[in-house]
Automatic annotation (TrEMBL):
Species assigned in the record: Glaciibacter psychrotolerans
Matching Pfam families: ABC_tran (PF00005)
Keyword vocabulary terms for this entry: ATP-binding, Nucleotide-binding
The keyword Kinase is annotated on this UniProt entry: no
GO molecular function: ATP binding; ATP hydrolysis activity
Protein name: ABC-2 type transport system ATP-binding protein
CDD domains linked to this entry: ABC_DR_subfamily_A
Length: 303
């Protein structure tokens, strides 16, 4: 049997976006494989929304190439009709009610599933007869999430989709996303600051920092790639000598150091000299990587 590679949903090469003299996206190249859930992560102002706008033809590139389903998305109906872009700042016509959004969605999305939309309306308790300008912040986000999921668009972008959504509603979003994705695989690109919440959802991580791609990595590999070593200062230092240290902190005579992947043998060696090994969450790892790239502020303080 011959293996036929699936074409990437997105291919970006040397992509650059300048706003006046400011370079928001700086010579970026990456692929987005079809039928995977991608996390587009990064600090405030890193360039996530700009990348999404470039991929959905809402911004013109200053340089480089963007290919979505093999074509340039700008003013390209055959590409754009396969895309759903859910963003926090979605504008709707004046006096539009929630039910009008749901009624008009099938015009835009060929795969629209009205049954799924109805079920999500119940899950999120969205008042369908109320005008959008009168519903709550969280309910407005829920409308976006409903459209994004029920669109079943082959390429769906969620740009920080849950401003104002409470913890229960966010969990419903994650659960429904996974359920529906399992039955109807498609390419999903999710930008979020709540990394730990979506950690198990993501199959691939693109980490953006100051307009560049800092990490382009399989999420499973990333999750298993780092660990924290805790022990007496001298023991920890001896163990990590010559290794790339992502983070170090200490109290008294104890040190806690985060390093990239250890082999099984190295883990046994660490244990044999009395060092404790602990996991590193995806969020911690992303913070460490971003901080190492030159920023010392706390991610959460800015997100
Ligand atoms: N139209 C514009 N004119 C000038 N600068 C812009 C414009 N749009 C975005 N920028 C700048 O480009 C950079 C990237 O912005 P972008 O909105 O893509 O960041 P982000 O990663 O989505 O941030 P956040 O997580 O805060 O939403 C920021 O420094 C922003 O100020």
């Amino acid at each position: 049997m011959t293996y036929t590679p699936v074409a990437p949903a997105v291919r970006v090469a040397g992509l650059t976006k300048r706003f006046g003299r400011f370079t928001a996206i700086d010579d970026v190249s990456f692929d987005v494989e079809s039928n995977k859930i991608y996390g587009l992560l990064g600090r405030n102002g890193a360039g996530k929304t700009t990348i999404m706008q470039l991929l959905t033809g809402q911004q013109f590139a200053s340089g480089g190439q963007v290919n979505v389903f093999g074509e340039n998305p700008v003013e390209n109906a055959s590409v754009l009709q396969r895309i759903c872009f859910i963003k926090e700042s979605q504008k709707y016509p004046d006096n539009f009610k929630v039910k009008h959004v749901l009624k008009s969605a099938p015009w835009f999305f060929a795969n629209w599933d009205a049954q799924l939309a109805d079920r999500l309306v119940e899950d999120f308790r969205v008042p369908v007869n109320r005008e959008l300008k009168k519903i709550s912040r969280g309910q407005l986000s829920a409308v976006g999430v409903i459209v994004g999921l029920a669109s079943r668009a082959p390429l769906t972008f969620f740009d920080e989709p849950y401003l104002g959504l409470d913890a229960v509603a966010r969990q419903i979003f994650y659960d429904r996303l996974l359920e529906d994705y399992a039955e109807h695989p498609r390419t999903i690109i999710l930008s979020t600051h709540l990394i730990d919440e979506v950690s198990n959802l993501l199959e691939h991580v693109l980490l953006v920092d100051e307009g560049r791609i800092l990490l382009d990595e399989d999420a499973e590999r990333l999750r298993g790639s780092a660990c924290t070593i805790v022990g007496r200062n001298a023991d920890v230092d001896a163990f990590v000598a010559g290794r790339e240290v992502l983070h170090r902190e200490g109290i008294g005579g104890l040190a806690s150091v985060t390093v990239n992947g250890l082999t099984e043998e190295e883990r046994r060696n660490a244990a044999s000299v009395g060092l404790e090994l602990g996991p590193v969450s995806l969020q911690q790892l992303i913070v460490r990587k971003t901080v190492r790239s030159g920023h010392s502020e706390d991610w959460n303080a800015r997100s």
